[in-house]
Design brief:
Blueprint lengths: L10 E5 L3 H12 L3 E6 L12 E4 L5 H8 L4 E4 L6 H8 L8 H7 L2 H10 L7 E4 L2 H11 L3 E5 L9 E4 L5 H7 L5 E5 L3 E11 L5 E12 L2 E7 L8 H15 L3 E10 L4 E7 L9 H4 L4 H9 L13 E7 L10 H5 L4 E5 L10 E8 L3 H14 L5
Parallel strand pairs: 1-2, 1-4, 2-3
Antiparallel strand pairs: 5-8, 6-7, 6-8, 9-10, 9-12, 10-11, 11-14, 12-13, 14-16, 15-16
Helix pairs in contact: 1-10, 2-3, 3-4
């Protein structure tokens, strides 16, 4: 089937109104598009940038239909949209990535099984729908392991690490006896991601592998390009492309991976949208992940997402505001540092309020500068 491209001047719709929607809207408006967002709150980060902000519950199918009738294509910035809502939009116009991608990716068990059935390397797992199935899963995969709710959960929420089989009953209770997935604990050397994109014609482009460091289950620092990952690049790209083709993704998707001691790669999870680890593409790549999302969903040629200069990104969490307003002046005195704040009104511990990016002549300098800039934010508190 031939699809006509959606050209600048058209209206792009975004389901969700957080920072990913905000940065998408900025990229879209730079390219000459108009943007409508659907939010469950007013005065949202994406709403600040959009031409129009629809406010309603994410389960309000009639309101979502009203939103969909005002745009030429719909994309999303988070996964917790009901399948019924996605189907309602698809009856009106294109949704990219499609509702089928949402259906698979918003359930960890469905996601893992789909990728495993396609022959892609995933962490060993078992379904858990009862205490008896949890016991069998532990017998099969051993401990330690991680019990995760099949739906919901992010940044470490909705999961419990099990060090011994004796902890299973308490973990099952803690997660509400909901449908879960039990995954074997992987002794990985590092975590990486590939922020990939696929066009309407199957064209593929990606950024990565990005080296990611986490703190308290939340992404802390991302760096790219990392020369120590050069030997893994071809395999990481092959896996990412396999994921997007298996799921028939049109848009941007992040594939998070574990690298084991022997250099082999396992898929941890996927996110059918731009990703925190891809923020450094705004400064470091010819085409940012957000411009790429616009290009992909509109049927335009894809751009080059691979960073052409050493870059590092550091998250700014609400914890930085505990002692008062961060010292933006001190941070911005450091060469090559850029500040992105998301327009969120209330800083809370663990809440992503913004990020810093540093580009430099060497990767070591970029990492040092972004960490120095973040530390400078609280120097006078």
């Amino acid at each position: 089937m031939t699809h006509q491209p959606i050209l600048p001047g058209a209206v792009l719709g975004v389901l969700g109104s957080g920072q990913l929607g905000r940065m998408f809207a900025i990229a879209a408006r730079e390219m000459g598009y108009r943007v409508h967002v659907y939010s469950n709150e007013t005065d949202s980060p994406a709403g600040h940038i959009a031409d129009r902000e629809f406010v309603g519950d994410y389960t309000d199918v009639d309101r979502i239909r009203e939103f969909a009738r005002t745009v030429d294509v719909v994309t999303f910035e988070f996964e917790n949209i009901s399948a019924e809502a996605a189907q309602a939009i698809e009856e009106i116009g294109p949704v990219r990535p499609g509702g089928h991608v949402l259906h698979i990716s918003q359930n960890r068990l469905r996601e893992k099984q789909t990728l495993a059935d396609a022959g892609l390397p995933v962490t060993p797992f078992r379904p858990v729908r009862s205490s008896a199935e949890l016991e069998t899963a532990i017998q099969d995969l051993g401990c330690p392991g991680v019990l995760k709710t099949a739906e919901g959960g992010y940044d470490g929420k909705g999961q419990v690490a099990l060090k011994a089989a004796s902890e299973a009953a308490a973990a099952w209770q803690e997660l509400g006896q909901l449908e879960c997935i039990y995954e074997q604990f992987i002794e990985f050397e590092r975590e990486v991601s590939v922020v990939a994109s696929r066009g309407l014609d199957g064209e593929f482009a990606a950024c990565g592998p990005v080296h990611n460091d986490h703190h308290n289950h939340i992404l802390d620092v991302s760096i790219c390009p990392d020369p120590t990952l050069d030997s893994l690049r071809e395999e990481a790209m092959r896996i990412a492309r396999g994921v997007l083709e298996t799921l028939d993704v049109v848009g941007v998707m992040c594939v998070e991976m574990f690298v084991q001691a022997d250099g082999s790669i396992l898929i941890n999870e996927v996110a059918p949208r731009p990703h925190n680890s891809g923020h450094l593409t705004i400064e470091a790549s010819p085409c940012s992940q957000f411009e790429q999302q616009v290009r992909a969903i509109c049927g335009l040629p894809l751009g080059d997402m691979q960073p052409h200069t050493p870059s590092a990104m550091a998250n700014l969490l609400g914890d930085l505001w505990v002692g008062g307003e961060p010292d933006w002046l001190e941070a911005l005195r450091i060469p090559g540092v850029r500040l992105h704040l998301y327009g969120k009104q209330e800083p809370r511990n663990g809440r992503k309020m913004g990020h810093l990016t540093a580009i430099a002549g060497t990767l070591e300098a970029a990492v040092a500068n972004v960490q120095k800039a973040r530390k400078a934010l609280t120097r006078n508190q």
